[in-house]
Amino acid sequence: MEPISLTLEMSVVLGLLAFTVFLFVSEIVRIDLAAIMVMVLLGLLSQLPALSSLADVSRLFDGLASNAVVSIIAVMIIGAGLDKTGLMSKVASVILKHGGKTETRIIPIISGTVGVISSFMQNVGAAALFLPVVSRISVRTELPLSRLLMPMGFCAILGGTMTMVGSSPLILLNDLLLSANEALPEDQQMAPFGLFSVTPVGISLVITGILYFVVFGRWVLPAGRKEGEATSATSLKDYLKNIYGLKTDIFEISVPEGHPCVGETFDDVMQRYHVYIIGSAYRGKRWFAPVIQTQITAPCRLAILGRKKVIDQMVAEGGYVLHPQLDVFAEDYAPTKSGVAEMVIPPGSSVIGKCAHDLVFRKTYGASLLAIHRDEETMSYVETDDHAPTAVGEVPFHAGDTLVIHSTWEALTRLTRDRDFVVVTTNFPQEELRPKKVGWALLFFIISISLILFTDLRLSLCLLTGAVGMILTGVLDIDDAYAAVSWSTVFLLASLIPLGQAVQTTGTAEWIAQQILTLLNGWPLWSLQAGIAVLATAFTLIMSNVGATVLLVPLAVSIAVAAGGDPAIFALTVAISTSNSFLIPTHQVNALIMGPAGYKVTDFMKSGGIMTILFLVVSLLMMNVVF
Fold first, then answer.
1. Could you give the CA distance from residue 338 to residue 332 in angstroms, rounded to a whole number?
2. Angle subtended at Cα 78 by Cα 73 and Cα 80, rounded to the nearest 5 degrees
3. 67-84 helix and 87-99 helix, angle to the nearest 10 degrees
4. Whether 114 contacts 148, CB under 8 Å
5. From CA 168, how far away is CA 548, in angstroms rounded?
6. Distance of alpha carbon 299 from its chain centroid, rounded?
7. Distances in whole angstroms, Cα of residue 471 to Cα of each of 88, 336, 489, 537
8. What are the RCK C-terminal domain coordinates in residue numbering (predicted)?
9. CB 303 within 8 A of CB 339
10. Is the pLDDT of residue 614 over 90?
11. Vertex 465 angle, CA 462 and 467, to 5°
């Protein structure tokens, strides 16, 4: 191998790499701004005569139109479309039903599912589709999003190693082997790998990732904030206790067939036990804020707001069945769909002098009146430390009263347009779900996936077909589509692409590879393979995994032939190790989850450092065992 000399341009590129890593780690500026700064700096330096070939300035911003970046934009829109129909909430409900509400049970289900999906589609696509699911699970379990997104993201990357179509490097590998065969004698020709040749290695890596976070997650995952923490809906229990002194929570009970309360009204039960029935379910149908004059029919389920000790007494005396957690009503009373809000009755309102019963409040407004706050006094159905319960439904409204209600966000959005009330709660999800569009959303999602799996069209075009289809059919409007895109992620990735190209085109990557391989000269075969794996890992952090694979596979094959090793295994080592990208958020999946979870670069270094070592050990061990 002819020695490569270090040039001025290579030195500048190495300096820019060091500067980029410094900005990422120190976080002096936001990481997306740091990437943009480096891109601009690269373009300006290219104007100097001695550095004219550092970068092609006319193509400096091509990253914004790259296949990877456009694919990410499209998959974010597709994910938002599926979420808009309520489909992702249903997926979250299924996961919660089987996984409970603990980290150690939820993480394996989410991560394992995403890992399997990413073995057949681009890992960033799998991660983007599950982002709204994990967000809703975070809200409903009150587990911080930062505790769930990193395991999901890492396993999406690991899942790409489970099949030969799971990641771009593995897709390219067989073509690169065929090219390398042209320079090899017939007895050293390499056979192409089959679709599932790498599956044992990939499965081992996914299982390792899941076990890593289940066992060590409490120490390596950042605490972060809970999803939705800034809204009044984060915890109904805490909100009512802190603001109004109401020590309540929502409980789900069953009324068995033949129960004595059958034929009574909800109002009768509410007044007998001083609880508040805010939901009912019968024969598969659910009612949010049902009319209190409704007669009870068994068997049915009720969602009840009340104090724990009162609910326990009610169950013990009345023969009701208390469920350990919300089951039938889990989706209806999730903070993503409903919560506590406050509204004031202004002077001149037509409801002054009337009570909730007169207005048939629940039927008219789709909300449950929990309390009335008037002159420093809070009146509610529920017993407090200061006073006995009050039948707030029979208290006439006064101008200036603050009404505490439990409502769906959709109903609350309608109330903001009602002149009889002034809604003072502003920080709530003002989104309009479109469940009737679920058929269109699924159709265009399936079309996108089918185009990816069964055609040779570019990934970005396949995904944009689905995204545009959802917009044209009204699943999303164009403003929703723009809002669904994390532009910080887009600019982070697009701005790093020119730096990766500079590393490759100036010969810096080849120079680095040669220096490392020179150091490994004469080492045992297993250490050469490990060195190749470490080199591929380092390269994929600073340039595209495709570029790293194209550059290193021919080098790996040459080293294997010279050392008497299996060139196909050395080439596979490169293709798999380019998925070992956990240390810094330069991988598309890591960039995607960084913003929503509020991760810092140091969080990736802390969690990803150990994961990087585990990846190297497990992948090398399994490749040598399997092959």
1. 7
2. 95
3. 80
4. no
5. 11
6. 38
7. 18, 23, 22, 39
8. 328-421
9. no
10. yes
11. 115
Q: Are 447 and 457 in contact (CB under 8 A)?
A: no
DSSP E strands: which ranges in 196-308? 249-255, 276-282, 285-288, 300-306
Q: Cα(first)–Cα(last) distance of the chain, in Å?
A: 28
pLDDT band at 242 (very low <50, low <70, confident <90, very high): low
Q: Is 56 exposed, middle or buried (0-12, 13-18, 19+ CB in 10 A)?
A: middle
- Cβ burial of 368 (10 Å; 0-12, 13-18, 19+) is buried
How far apart are alpha carbons 45 and 41 in whole angstroms? 6
- DSSP string across 374-391: ETTEEEESS--SSS----
Peptide bond into 524 cis (omega under 30): no
Give residue for tokens 């409970």. Answer: 100
d(CA 355, CA 362): 12
The residue written with tokens 């995204």 in the block is 467
Closest residue by Cα to residue 493 from 72, 160, 169: 72
**Angle (CA) 527 530 533, round 5°:** 155
Residue 404 backbone phi and psi in degrees, to 5? -100, 120
User: What is the pTM for the complete model shown?
Assistant: 0.70
d(CA 497, CA 499): 5
Give dist(CA 361, CA 235) in Å, integer. Answer: 24
Q: Which pair of structure tokens corresponds to residue 598?
A: 């509020």
Q: 393 near 361, Cβ under 8 Å?
A: yes
Q: What is the tens place of the pLDDT at every residue in 137-169?
A: 887 777 888 999 999 999 999 999 998 877 878
Name residue 173's amino acid: L
In contact, 494 and 62? CB cutoff 8 Å = no
DSSP state of 190: P
Neighbours of 592 (CB within 10 A): 28
* Residues contacting 434, CB < 8 A, separation 6+: 84, 85, 474, 475
Residue, of 238 and 528, whose pLDDT is higher: 528
Structure confidence at residue 349 as a pLDDT band (50, 70, 90): very high
